Amino acid sequence: MKNQNRRNFIQKLAVGGLMITPFKKIIASPVSVQLSNAPAKVNIRFGICADIHQDIMHDGEKRLQVFVDDMQKQKIDFIIQLGDFCRPYERNLPFLKIWEQFTGPRYLVIGNHDNDGGFSHDQVIAFWKAPFKYYSFDKNGYHFVVLNGNEHNPSPDRPVGYARFIGKEQQAWLEKDLQQTKLTTIIFCHQGLDNDMGGIENATQIRLILERANQDAGFKKVRLVFSGHHHLDYQNEINDIFYVQINSMSYQWLGDSYVKMRYNAEIDQKYPYIKYTVPYKDPIYTVAEIDSRGSFSLKGASTSFVGPSPIELGMPKHEMGYEVVPTISPRKINLNS
């Protein structure tokens, strides 16, 4: 009976939840985009969090509450989470209610772990009350694009593991969307477009779409791409586009070689995957700001590790070559240069 109730719950989400679109600024359809003319740019501030992993962390609700309360206090223009948020289990409804406490626009990106447990993308966005799997919106004279990097690569030679691909239909939509806007554009995607170690499998192809959009526009239209997924802190610049990695709110995954109980036996038993991570003591997140002159800044955030650090455990570098740190670095970029 319990399994039947769960199936009924998910079926109701998949059928009824897609009718709910609380974001007034969201484009009405992900394939038919009607964009505004280029209004004057004004200052914009938006809060970004990534990879909270409610289904792994014992204190996910507390971490999200800190973020939402701070964003509400700062009167941010909108908030966005970059994926690996929560799976559509009924037990996660209180977690989702915390997210909904933010009274301004709220945007969501699908992460690979949000589909764990056999859930479809449609079930995830229905549970989240998100409008589409990928979409775009305009705000304060800027254009924002949310991509879904969790599509399946049809190639029989694709790498094993989670789907991390952007298919032809979404590519065509992205090209059309970028053609139709005159605004400086900012991209959000869960997986990185700037690396080939766990990032989007066809990242080079997607970067070419962005770079060609800049060539066709005659100016640097696409300037920033934000991603999560990797739980790292870095920035790359490729052909005049900046790719900014936003660190996890919660932890870095260390795996079987560095297992360590970080809290206590009760938490370890109830949340068995925490011991494979190095958790961050406090939630880290950031605020991005762009002023009317096109000057972009990212607020820094830093905390400490819970228990021994990766260096203390003999793991000084992540496999991608970056140091594991409980930090989001402050950054400044002139988008018009």
TrEMBL record:
| Pfam families cross-referenced by the UniProt entry | Metallophos (PF00149)
Q: Which residues belong to any copy of the Calcineurin-like phosphoesterase domain?
A: 44-231
Q: What InterPro entries does UniProt report for this protein, alphabetically?
A: Calcineurin-like_PHP, Metallo-depent_PP-like, STPP_CPPED1
Q: Which domain of life is it from?
A: Bacteria
**Gene3D superfamilies reported in the protein's UniProt record:** 3.60.21.10
In its UniProt entry, what is this protein called?
Phosphodiesterase
